[in-house]
Amino acid sequence: MRTIDDYAPSSESDGHHGVAGQPASSRPSPKILIVDDTPTNIELLDNVLRSEGFRTVSATDGSSARALGRVEQPDLILLDVMMPGESGFETCSRLKSDPTTSDIPIIFLSALDDVKNKVTGLKIGGVDYISKPVHGEEVLARVRVHLRINENNRALVREHRARLESLREAQQAILVRSEDCPEASFAVYYSPLEETGGDFYDVVSVDADVFGYFVADVSGHGASAAFLTSAIKALLRQYAGPLYSPEDTMRGVDAVMRQMLGEEQYLTACYAHLNRRTRKLSVVSAGHPPLVLVSATGQTTVVEMNSDPLGIFSSVVLKRKDLRVSPGDRFYLCSDGMIESSPGAPRKAGIEKLVAACSHHRSEALATATDSIAASVLEGTGPASDDLLLLAVEVR
Known about the structure:
- This protein is an alpha/beta fold.
- The protein has helices at residues 11-17, 39-51, 62-72, 88-97, 115-123, 136-174, 222-239, 246-260, 336-339, 347-360, 366-378, and strands at 31-35, 55-59, 76-80, 106-110, 128-131, 186-191, 199-207, 210-218, 267-275, 280-286, 291-294, 300-303, 319-324, 330-334, 388-394.
- The protein has two domains: 4-163, Response regulator (Rossmann fold), CATH 3.40.50; 175-394, PPM-type phosphatase domain (Phosphatase 2c, domain 1), CATH 3.60.40.
- It is 39% helix and 23% strand.
- Helix 5 links the parallel strand 4 and strand 5.
């Protein structure tokens, strides 16, 4: 059986490959990081890989290997297990915990060929384990296999991201913007947790002085929730006309959602129906966070109702409250993420924080007030754990 020494290239071969085995094509050849505390082992692996067109970099200890991994971003790492100081297993764990190197496939090289060590290497993130003394053909075969697997995985990720981006663009396209309907006098802060979100809002012009403002939250995130938003928009437009009361509008959405939502899925929503001629604001809630009303004089009202979410029960229980409003008053509808932005914090505390922010920024221009309110609510809360949506409306 031949060993790795049989693959050391001759001087003629060195001259043929030129600089670090750079291929003739414009695409750079894969780069391999070799990590071994024995320089002879590095040299042998280097010769084998370069003779086949791979680029190589090397390190003799774990700390240097991690630094090189961050800078060089190799396509694959060949990592010795038994090294002084930081073992290969420790190096692998640290590489996998670093976001800049966590996706690089690692193949262990070790004289420790017992099952226990092999399992340990695979459990901490290695993709393969080659026993020493290594053989050139085996090294090349395993390197090529894992490079192909990694490239296929990257291609799938790129494809998935492209699809999500297309879906995100489609979802964004159906969300009405304030400039599309300036007569409705509203502004929005919307930040989905993922490329696509489960939160949804819409503004419907029922009549010249009558508008419907709708905020909903589909349970779950991502594509499955986002696909439903176009259906919700169509339903809202169908049931928000003069023929339907605000409760009828919500019941119409509920009836269809029961047929569309998957098992254990549901929809919370709040619908605010504003008639500027009669100065009446009718609020219908379906298991959703409260509407916050801030008068032109600064008085705040929290409109919270205990009611059923949509899409679950055959006979949904909805609650409605009617309020008198005046020009200059503002009201706000939000999703759960805005009042549950601090993990473990009571819901009541989140509502109080939102109310305080709405009151504090009541004199700010509506176009920027939503961003200011969101910044106040989210200050000191850390990374978001849910979609964030705040819809602000000023009564004219």
